[in-house]
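pls ignore typos typing on phone
magnesium ion + seq
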Amino acid sequence: MENKKRILTGDRPTGKLHLGHYVGSLANRVKLQEEYDSYIIIADVQALTTNFENPENLSQDTFQIAEDYLAAGLDPEISTIFVQSMIPEIHELTMYFSMFTTVNVLRHNPTVKSEAQQHGFSDMTYGFLGYPVSQAADISIFKAHLVPVGEDQIPHLEFTRKIVRRFNDLYRPVLVEPDILLGEVPRLVGLDGKAKMSKSLNNSIYLSDDSSEIRKKVMEAVTDPARIHKTDPGHPEVCTVYEYHKVFNQIEVEQIEGECRRGEIGCVVCKKRLAGCLDALLEPMRERRSKYSQNPGLVKDILMEGTKKAHRVAKETMDEVRDAMGINYFK
Ligand code: ATP
Ligand code: MG
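k done
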């Protein structure tokens, strides 16, 4: 256990987790949880960077995300699931990192820019502009070697590596430069076929959706607009449903592509097959989830235990950080 490499990754508690989260990061976390010492952060402070007007939602969303994790197969006996705001050392490290981070570097971060646009910010708050600094602290306080995430996180990981190098260079080499691990699908498109699947865009299939919700959403998904009759030859390359077959129905995808191009399969049948695959993926999650949704005290205990353990690790790193910086006057 002690000499395993570490993983740190997580999500903002801003709503339910969806298939994009699963293929972008969550599936890798489940797969690697035995090989790595895994820390999974529920980044509630980071959620406040955009949702500071509604802090009352944080509690419910935090428990929702924790339940989604457990349903997806994160095993609380081996993965440490914890809450960001409960670890003050993360915020302390964020402050030290912010001393040598320039405003321009943050302003030019492409993910910060596109999210600011998406949220309609004409000006950015200090907290929002600085969230990559706090993310660098989340990762490096656990000395994580590997960070499984989706494509939008590439600039943040590059930035974290730079911060770690700078810290180690300025003071003493106590922090670890993390590697990124992109998911099998680093950017899953939403049901609208335009933007990425996202909690805030109403284009998602959630891990907690039941069979009839899945079927309804898949039936409404965008397909090849040039196809009017089911015998018309289709163009899978422009079809969202085909995109999903590629990811979630690898056994049949080649056959479906051929049948579509030859006009031998209609969109309705094609969609039904996809809905069946998605349902099969989510069914075992439903079973695991029921154990937790019937017993909310269990989820709370898991979060409290995980947070206690994560706090111990964060305190150890911060002792080393303060020693390296000479901020240990009373020792
Ligand atoms: P919000 O709209 O609140 O920002 P989100 O859906 O973008 O929510 P985050 O909590 O910001 O979700 O992202 C959590 C993790 O999931 C990150 O690693 C991110 O890269 C990954 N992720 C999110 N959406 C997708 C997607 N559509 N495809 C692949 N990975 C994704
Ligand atoms: Mg996001």
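The mean pLDDT is 96. Residues 221 and 247 are 16 Å apart (CA to CA). more later
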